[in-house]
Design a protein that fits this description.
With 393 residues, this protein is an alpha/beta fold. It has 14 helices and eleven strands. Helix 4 runs parallel beside helix 5.
Length: 393
C-alpha cells in the first residue's frame, strides 16, 4: 500500500524564497482580505494515544474563506503581487475591493486546476473585479466545475490529463494576452508560481503561532502532501526557517499513480523526474506528474522521507478524521487532505511497516503535524468513501 525511501539528498539548506520573513508578508496580505480568519488547529488526543504517539495536530483548512480548501491562499497572494507589479505600487497598497478602479479594463486570469486552485483563482478574481478562465483535466468532478462557475469564472473541461491541461491553459493565455496564474513552474515561468507557494506559507505561519499560543509542544514530525510540490515546498521552507534546521522530520506523501516527487527523490542524481501516462487518483489535487522546479530544491534539501501511497490510504485518513474516536474533534477532510492521516495510521498500526515507522523515528514522544488541506470538496465522493467504504484497506 505504500513505498518509502529515506532522502539521501538532504542538506538542510535554507531557502531565500520560502522563509519566515516572506511568510509574514503573505500573512499580512491575507489578514487584509474581508472574511479572513485563522483556520483551526486541533489536537487529536485520543487518536494520538491509539497510535502510540504524544500528539497528533491537524490544521483544518476546510474553513478557509468559506471555500473548503487552502489553495485560495496562493491564488489570492499571486494575484495581489501581480497587480501590485502591474500598477507599480507596494503590495501593501493592494485592496481587493478597490483595485479594479485603478485598472483601465478588467484583466483576465487563466489557470489549469484539479479543482481547489482554480476555485481560489476564480474567487480572488471575482473579489478583485477581474475575470477568470479555468481549465480542468478530464475526469474532474462535476461538483468542482459547478463550484468554479458559481464564482463567476468560465470553466472548460479538457480531454487530457492535468499536465497537458496546464499546457493548454498556457497556450491559450499567450494567444489571448491573458495572465496565466499557475501553481507549477517551468523555464521562463517562475515568478507567479513562486508567489503562489509563498502565499501557502500563511497556513504554516498560523500553525506555528497557534502552537505557541496553546502552549503545545513543537512538532517532531511533519507530514506534507505533494502534487507538483508547490504547497509542500513553500510550507517546508518556512517551517525549517521558523522552527530550525533538523528540529523535526518531514515526510512527503503523494499518490502512487503520480509519484513524481518520490521518483525525483529516489533518482540517481536527485533531479526532477516526470511521471507520464495515466496519473489519475482519487486525490485529484495531487494527481500531477511533473514537479515544480521552484520548490523542488527545498524539498530535495529538507525532506527526510518520501512516500508513495495507494488511494486507499487517503480514503482511510478521510474515515479516521471524519469519524473520530470518542473525545476527539471531527475533521471533514477530502481525498487530498487526508493522505497524511492515512499514512500515519498505516505506519503506526500495520506490522508490515513497523520498521519504517521506527526508522522515521515515530515513538511515544512524537508530535505529528498534519495539514488537512481540503474538506469535502466533492460531496458525493466523500459519502461514497466515508459512508459506503469505497477504497477500503
Amino acid at each position: 500500500m505504500l513505498k518509502s525511501c529515506q532522502n539521501r539528498w538532504y542538506s538542510g539548506q535554507g531557502s531565500a524564497l520560502f522563509n519566515a520573513e516572506m511568510a509574514q508578508s503573505a500573512l499580512a496580505f491575507h489578514r487584509k482580505i474581508e472574511g479572513y480568519a485563522q483556520t483551526p488547529l486541533v489536537s487529536l488526543e485520543v487518536l494520538a494515544k491509539k497510535l502510540g504517539v504524544k500528539k497528533v495536530l491537524v490544521k483544518d483548512e476546510s474553513y478557509r474563506f468559506g471555500l473548503n480548501a487552502f489553495k485560495v491562499l496562493g491564488g489570492s497572494f499571486a494575484l495581489g503581487c501581480l497587480l501590485a507589479k502591474k500598477l507599480g505600487v507596494p503590495l501593501s497598497e493592494i485592496d481587493l475591493k478597490t483595485v479594479a478602479s485603478k485598472l483601465p479594463e478588467p484583466m483576465v486570469f487563466t489557470t489549469a486546476t484539479a479543482g481547489n486552485h482554480g476555485t481560489g483563482v476564480a474567487w480572488a478574481a471575482r473579489e478583485m473585479g477581474q475575470k477568470a478562465v479555468v481549465y480542468m483535466p478530464k475526469g474532474s468532478p462535476q461538483a468542482s466545475v459547478k463550484r468554479v462557475r458559481g464564482l463567476g469564472a468560465e470553466c472548460i473541461v479538457t480531454d487530457v490529463n492535468y499536465d497537458d491541461t496546464v499546457r493548454i491553459a498556457n497556450e491559450t493565455a499567450q494567444a489571448n494576452g491573458w495572465d496565466l496564474v499557475q501553481d507549477t513552474a517551468w523555464e521562463g515561468y517562475e515568478e507567479i508560481p513562486t508567489w503562489i507557494s509563498q502565499g501557502y506559507m500563511t497556513m504554516a505561519a498560523e500553525t506555528v503561532q497557534q502552537i505557541a499560543d496553546a502552549d503545545l509542544p513543537k512538532p517532531t514530525h511533519v507530514i506534507l502532501q505533494a502534487g507538483v510540490g508547490a504547497m509542500a515546498g513553500g510550507v517546508l521552507g518556512y517551517l525549517v526557517d521558523a522552527l530550525g534546521v533538523g528540529t523535526f522530520k518531514t515526510l512527503i506523501a503523494e499518490p502512487r499513480a503520480a509519484e513524481c516527487i518520490y521518483r525525483s527523490g529516489t533518482s540517481d542524481e536527485g533531479k526532477m523526474t516526470v511521471v507520464e501516462g495515466d496519473i489519475s487518483s482519487i486525490m485529484a489535487g495531487l494527481a500531477c506528474g511533473e514537479p515544480n522546479p521552484v520548490t523542488w530544491p527545498t524539498l530535495r534539501d529538507n525532506s527526510d522521507w518520501f512516500f508513495s501511497v495507494e488511494d486507499k490510504v487517503a480514503a482511510t485518513g478521510m474515515r479516521m478524521l471524519g469519524c473520530p474516536l470518542r473525545g476527539d474533534v471531527q475533521v471533514i477532510s477530502g481525498e487530498s487532505g487526508a493522505i497524511g492521516a492515512g499514512l500515519l495510521y498505516l505506519l503506526q498500526s500495520d506490522e508490515a511497516y513497523a520498521k519504517v515507522a521506527k526508522d522515521v523515528g515515530l515513538n511515544a514522544g512524537s508530535v505529528v503535524l498534519i495539514f488537512s488541506t481540503e474538506g469535502d470538496t466533492s460531496g458525493a465522493r466523500y459519502q461514497q468513501i466515508v459512508w459506503e467504504g469505497l477504497h477500503a484497506l
